[in-house]
Amino acid sequence: QVQLVESGGGLVQPGGSLSLSCAASGSGSSSAVMGWFRQAPGKQRELVATITRGGSRNYADSMKGRFTISRDNAKNTVYLQMNSLKPADTAVYYCQGLYPGTTYWGRGTQVAVSA
User: Fold this and answer.
1) Which residue among 7, 11, 31, 54 is least packed, with the fewest CB closer than 10 Å?
2) Distance from the Cα of residue 56 to its chain's centroid
């Protein structure tokens, strides 16, 4: 069993920055691919970014240039640096880990962008 725990959400003004973290723990917690997704009220969950153990990154088009995903394999932790935040970025951000045969999700952390 793997547990993913997100942290770092909060309230920020438009144009501001936030950094999210997601730590994986438990048996076999080293994941091949980790990622961030988000879900805004009334909308479906959508991809933000993913990163492989080797550091290959994939971003949703609307996040390119503003968000940066990174990971520390030794700490089984993935990060999301979010810059130039917009009100449209308001959502619950979820961490995802892809493991052999299964996918794990964190419980999410709220990000609110508002003046």
Assistant:
1) 54
2) 15
* C-alpha span between 112 and 108 (Å, rounded): 13
The span from the CA of 12 to the CA of 87, in Å, is 9
Task: Name the phi and psi angles at 74, rounded to 5.
Answer: -65, -30
Place of tokens 């088009």: 61
Nearest to 28 by CA among 109, 106, 102: 102
- Rounded distance, CA 91 to CA 55, Å? 25
Q: Is 73 helix (H, G, I), strand (E, B) or coil?
A: helix
111 pLDDT tier (thresholds 50, 70, 90): very high
What are the pLDDT digits (tens) for 24-80? 988 766 778 999 999 999 999 999 999 999 999 999 998 999 999 999 999 999 999
